[in-house]
Amino acid sequence: MPLPRFDRLPAERREHILGVARRHFAEHGAEGASYNKIIEAAGVSKTAAYHYFDGREDLLTAVLDGVLGRLLTALGPWEPARDEGDFAARFAAGSTALAAHLGGHPEDLALADAAIGRTSGGPWLDWFGALVADGRRIGLIRTDVDPSLMVAATAAVIRAADAWALARMATAPDPGDPSGQLWTLLRGLWGAAPTGQEPDHAL
User: Fold this and answer.
1) Axis-axis angle for helices 84-104, 147-171 (nearest 10)
2) Cα(33)–Cα(80) distance, rounded to whole angstroms?
3) Cβ 154 vs Cβ 128: under 8 Å
4) CA 13, CA 105: separation in Å to the nearest integer?
5) Is the pTM of this model over 0.90?
6) What DSSP assignment string belongs to 131-151?
7) Could you tell me the sign of the dihedral formed by the alpha carbons of 49, 50, 52, 58, in that order?
């Protein structure tokens, strides 16, 4: 996280530095961008830079936190659904809003997978927790699996689908509608356990 002195900078100056960093990380990769080139392009001396951030990884974390925050804003909070049809419609609306944001913000598109991949909890998993709890409430999501495992599995499936869709968006002018295939995957994950069948624990 940025050091306290960074937070005391004017908002425009903070956004300028993070914007320059975001462009460099998006262009050269989260692991490939040069810290020295970023701070030079932002017009920040090395001495000042180390008053704002502990180093390159600290700056990268601040940039990716910003990306993740914008993704969550695009998704919006999960609101309880009236029924399965409403649940599907809300899910599709969130997916469409997220895709529209990424389509209009190529830097966020380039860094989205890195931003999501760095989260092990927090607001990102909280969003899936709300979705899974609501799906269980209306009978769409099976209840024979521990809720925390179902949240983790749902987030993993969506992350895999997002990585696939992001790659398509980055290379195809019209990537089509990947949300339909994601919905099919999720319905398979969420479906009720077959009656009369014992689970196979021999893993």
Assistant:
1) 40
2) 41
3) yes
4) 21
5) no
6) HHHHHHHTTSS-SSS-HHHHH
7) positive
Residue type, 123: P
Q: Which residue has the tokens 């960074």?
A: 6
Contacts of 136 (CB under 8 A, 6+ apart): 142, 143, 147, 150
> CB neighbours (10 Å) of residue 114?
18
Reported confidence tier of residue 156, pLDDT bands at 50, 70, 90: confident
Question: Is residue 14 over pLDDT 70?
Answer: yes
CB atoms inside a 10 Å sphere around CB 88: 15
Closest CA to 155 of 179, 184, 132: 132
131 pLDDT higher than 60: yes
Closest CA to 127 of 89, 91, 181, 165: 91
* pLDDT attached to residue 179: 66
Give the pLDDT score at 196. 44
Name residues whose C-beta falls within 8 Å of residue 46's C-beta, 6 or more positions apart in sequence. Answer: 36, 39
Q: What is the mean pLDDT of residues 171-197?
A: 69
Dist CA 63 CA 74 (whole Å): 17
Give residue-wise pLDDT tens across range 41-70.
999 999 999 899 999 999 999 999 999 999
> Are 75 and 100 contacting, i.e. CB atoms less than 8 angstroms apart?
no
CB within 8 Å of 98: residues ≥ 6 apart: 71, 74, 75
